[in-house]
Amino acid sequence: MKRNHTMMQFFEWHVAADGQHWKRLAQMAPELKAAGIDSVWVPPVTKAISPEDTGYGVYDLYDLGEFDQKGTIRTKYGTKQELIDAIAECLRNGIAVYVDLVMNHKAGADETEVFEVIEVDPNNRNKEISAPFEIEGWTKFTFPGRGDTYSSFKWNHTHFNGTDFDAKGGRNGVFRINGENKNWNQNVDDEFGNYDYLMFANIDYSQQEVRSEMLEWGKWLVDTLQCSGYRLDAIKHINHEFIKEFAAEMTKKRGEDFYIVGEFWNSNLEACREFLNTVDYQIDLFDVSLHYKLYAAALGGRDFDLTHIFDDTLVQTHPGNAVTFVDNHDSQPHEALESWVGDWFKQSAYALILLRRDGYPVVFYGDYYGIGGPAPVEGKKEAIDPLLYARCHKAYGEQDDYFDHPNTIGWVRRGIEEVEDSGCAVVISNGDNGEKRMFLGEERAGEVWVDFTHNRRESVTIGKDGWAVFPVNGGSVSVWALPDGAEEKPAAQDMDDIEESTKNNSGKRTR
């Protein structure tokens, strides 16, 4: 019987730029597996504009920490061989590895070129605010440190459709590159009129030679690394038809179980549905809508109605394609999409993604191990570990929701025979102390359950009728389940005494 799958985003924005991250991953693989993690999403593995860059300022897609370029051989995270070794070690430990791909832009060009552009309004990229004029742009990539190794393709301004800096005039702007059949791609997000352009030199996927090169690179990368899947960055800015083609080619290359998840940062469900339709549901998407619901719940406190926490989320409407997350490197404090779920609600938020039937949940490295940089945040490993354990060993079977009070919600998982002692009852409060009376099944009568979070210290006995009352502290979560290897249930004749004792000791609580 396969256990529930759980992913970890194995980096945060301020991971030390010491070149040791791939070694850390290899070393930590056994403990990750033991904690219940069976896949990791690793940061961009390609050479970026500097040894400190997180990898999203991508320079050379074929340099995985092998060539002396941009002042370094290694990347921020280590060398190519260390990366290959880390992936192999993960696979030996039963952990799949998904590699982050940055395919929207290139940065750190080797030379400038002079070419014609039209400046557009940054807030409406369809609105031209200049006549055609020449700029000197950083768009020529010759890769002097690598040469023609692995690929002889050299990039120039014809392979891009926009850039953001004129070296001749020494000024920034959004400059659409002019030329025959040159324009923004129309199969992209429509924010700012057209959101093809995001940053740096924007790759033009209307060029067949560009598409061919990127497809060949995708195949080369998976052959080189033997990874289990890809995480695609910023796909709302990339020709959606190319994403469809890319996913199909990678699946054809590696088989149906090669996994792809895309970052389509749009909380509009209709836009997500249209995107999934376009790509024939070949990839999953991060549930951005749910992230913002969790953020709103953390901000709103008791004023947020928990019964609506899953309304208008991808995991509710497209559970088979939803990758759920609480926070990530972009939403962490002081980053581009800052929307950090507050500490008081963090454990509850993780319960909402880890202990339910639907979605493929991701644990963020920054939540688990902490965040570095100028404003450090302590990790919450001790709060998340019990939830990971419950996901791996308890959260199975039929799910019944008790979303019947704005400040106290609960659900049960009935358990399955294939996983011994499985089944759990989860209660979350964003207000006062509360409780939920929930049904587990008459066959569980007499079982004595405990709170795996240790937020509550008492035990709960399942009644003769299969029902029990599960308490929760105010502004907290409790995960009730049968302890592993628990003693046999009380004899049937003892149940009446237990029932009476439970009633007498339950105390008076609000819902």
UniProtKB/TrEMBL annotation:
Instruction: Tell me which domain of life the UniProt entry assigns to the organism this sequence originates from.
Output: Bacteria
Q: Where is the active site?
A: D233, E263
Please list where the region (Disordered) is annotated.
484-511
Cofactor(s) this protein requires: Ca(2+)
The record's section on CDD domains has: AmyAc_bac_fung_AmyA
UniProt keyword list: Calcium, Carbohydrate metabolism, Glycosidase, Hydrolase, Metal-binding
Q: Which Pfam families match?
A: Alpha-amylase
Which family does the UniProt entry place this protein in? Belongs to the glycosyl hydrolase 13 family.
| Residues the record lists as binding Ca(2+) 2 | D204
Which sites bind Ca(2+) 1? N104, D196, H237
Q: Which PANTHER family match?
A: ALPHA-AMYLASE (PTHR43447)
Under which EC number(s) is this enzyme classified?
3.2.1.1
- Which SMART domains does this entry report, sorted A to Z? Aamy (SM00642)
The protein in question is named Alpha-amylase
Domain (Glycosyl hydrolase family 13 catalytic) ranges: 5-391
Recorded GO terms, molecular function? alpha-amylase activity; calcium ion binding
Mind listing the GO biological process terms from this record?
carbohydrate metabolic process
